[in-house]
UniProtKB/TrEMBL annotation:
This is Dihydrofolate reductase family protein. It holds the Pfam family RibD_C. Signal peptide: none annotated. Coiled coil: none annotated. One of its GO terms (biological process) is riboflavin biosynthetic process. InterPro entries: DHFR-like_dom_sf, RibDG_C, Riboflavin_Biosynth_HTPR.
């Protein structure tokens, strides 16, 4: 069975984006960017919801060709292109960049993928991840909290039908007061 990880940058008040999809507060330090790169390198498959897919695919396919791209950004762009991706959307017609589109039942497809043999998967996008959390499919949470509150926006956390009990397995402090906490789901 594959492991499924949900991890994102979020504000102290729990948002992954401020109103208007503003993520300007989440500019990572070089150290944090490198940590995210290492996390992504460990994934065999990435699962995206439509909104985050559109954000990522609008920049990272050519991120290594951008003027002033850092060595970490070059590596991230290459890894992003090389990692197979599944995009869940009922409105998109096609996806590119080593990706396939799923338009049907996301929970059923994630359940199927998770039951396969293979390496770890990551999930990103609040709506998609929320469905996986409610279905009990997320094995690990990587919560990277930035010292800012935005008051509203897109929440990292979803409305739950049942409690999710977790075990803290790691913490780390990054520059600028950013704190990473990694939790595993207690099964």
């Amino acid at each position: 069975m594959r492991k499924l990880t949900y991890g994102m940058n979020l504000t102290l008040d729990g948002y992954i984006a401020a109103p208007g999809d503003d993520i300007g507060w989440s500019e990572p330090s070089d150290e944090l960017f490198q940590w995210w790169l290492e996390q992504d390198r460990g994934l065999e498959l990435m699962l995206y919801g439509r909104k985050l897919w559109e954000t990522m695919s609008s920049y990272w396919p050519t991120g290594d060709e951008q003027p002033g791209a850092t060595p970490g950004e070059v590596e991230f762009a290459r890894n992003w292109r090389d990692t197979p991706k599944v995009v869940f959307s009922s409105t998109l017609d096609k996806v590119d960049w080593n990706s396939r589109l799923v338009t049907g039942d996301a929970v059923a497809e994630i359940t199927r993928l998770r039951a396969e043999d293979g390496g770890p998967m990551g999930i990103a996008g609040a709506t998609l991840a929320g469905a996986a959390v409610r279905a009990g499919l997320v094995d690990e949470y990587q919560i990277v909290t930035h010292p800012v509150m935005v008051g509203a926006g897109t929440s990292f956390f979803t409305t739950l039908d049942n409690w999710v009990n977790l075990n803290l397995v790691e913490t780390r402090t990054f520059p600028d007061g950013v704190i990473m906490a990694r939790y595993e789901t207690r099964r």
